[in-house]
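note to self — DONT lose this again. spent like an hour looking for the file last time. sequence + predicted structure for the chain T wanted, 556 res
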Amino acid sequence: MVARALWALLAALRAGWCLLPQSGYVHPDEFFQAPEVMAGDILNLQVYYPWEFLSSSPCRTVVFPLMTSGVTYWVIKCLQQLDVCSSCINSYTLLVCPRLLFTIFSFILDYSVYRLAPFWGADPWKALVLLAGSYVTLVFYTRTFTNTLEGLLFALLMVLVSSRKSSGSSAEPTSSSLIGVITTAGFFNRPTFLAFALMPLLYWAGLIVDSRKSIKTLINHFLKLILCACFTAIVFITADTFYFTSMNLDNLYSTNKSSLVDVIAQLHDKMVVTPFNFLSYNLNPHNLALHGSHPRVTHFTVNGVMLFGILHILAIGAGFKMLKKCVHQLMQVRWCYRGLPGLLVHSEGSPTLLLFYFVPLAFLSLFSHQEPRFLIPLILPLVLFSASPNRAGKWKLLIVLFNLLGALLFGCLHQGGLIPCLFHLEQLIHSPVSSSRPQHYTLLFAHTYMPPRSLLNVKKTDMHVEVIDMAGSGQETLCQTVKQRASNFTCSDCHIFVIIPGTVRATITKCGVPFKNETLIFPHLSMEDPPQMHVLSSGNWRTQLGLYILELHRAH
């Protein structure tokens, strides 16, 4: 009963914190792989389209963004058009609505854990508490990452392949079609899904072989999987092709007056298969280096610990023990007649769960670009493994402290001033004073993550707002840009704002440009420009953990 009450409390925290909302900004892909694109397409807002969604380089499927952020934006657009609410579209709803949908979807993880725990010898409610109490669930699984969808599809795949046995007896697999659909959908969402799907598919294939059915039945299962996978791929390819060639379609109809057959023929010539474009780009080491190169052991030694803490370390220890046991069996020549299915069995030590965890980890480690969020789908097998008897119980206090720290860092502090800053600027831009008299705003962001322009809630037809992203520009470039803007500051209704972290506030001071109306948003932690420890220990620690909004003073 205590575990159930604790899970219910943590589930309520997950939903409530989403609505609050969370101020932490984990990574730009949270916005620029779905919400930002859909805000431009559906709500006609000024946005920044990332290169993956340009027709010249389509590397991301549009199906999942349309089904998630696209649906939520379409709903609030309809509500506003029907006068259900006069201001349904604002920075808060633009941020929270897609997140809320993902938060609802995150309970697929809870369902999967509850279904899978008895099968893998874990306590269901202890596993649910481990899952719901992890900051990975509270932060990452309530955000609009493609990695989040990857984790949910991985969970569904594990449920399908693990529910083929009950009470220790074999049952005929019946979910071949669904497995084909989910595997293909996961591949189009992120081609790396194949690394996660490999072990579940091998496990499923082993169960089919062990079911000792006729050859005809075995072939039937594999044919169902292949046919459903092909059908799902056709759906994704068709949707992506129409999306990325929509402008060409308009030209075909308006200029050439082509028939439907001609349109289909030209679409065939321009067929868009986003996963292949994604792989073609990411298999080039030079392209990966543009996004950052890391040692091949980063996932094992850094990212796994950063996400899962002691649970990752315990899994590594158990993995070495399993490897030692396998080598011992190999030396005794047992491997020869047991084969791979002999390893992929449901046993007391749950070696299969370790394979479900470490095999994807190993495949992802082959790439030089390694970010922690790439590993968030692995929380499911890790939680199931850790919830087994006498495994993580004595580490309760450490697990709680670790997840509290992680939730505080990534849910509140990390780039935590940027979203409230955009909320503040949106209210300023749409204030009654601005509405009654035309104003022009120039927003210059420096040393912050890329600002999602959609949260400013400015229509594409409105030209009174200009956003300049200086990224991590040096002092000389930054001062040159600010001085140039100041020299052209002749409009009486023009406003220029510089948004910069407190840790580099002194850089702007050296530019010699006067500012007024300083606004400090707290907290904001920039790991790219971290605060200095001696300043944190002084009375100015708040300025080091803040984000400044500086309004340029017009020279007379």
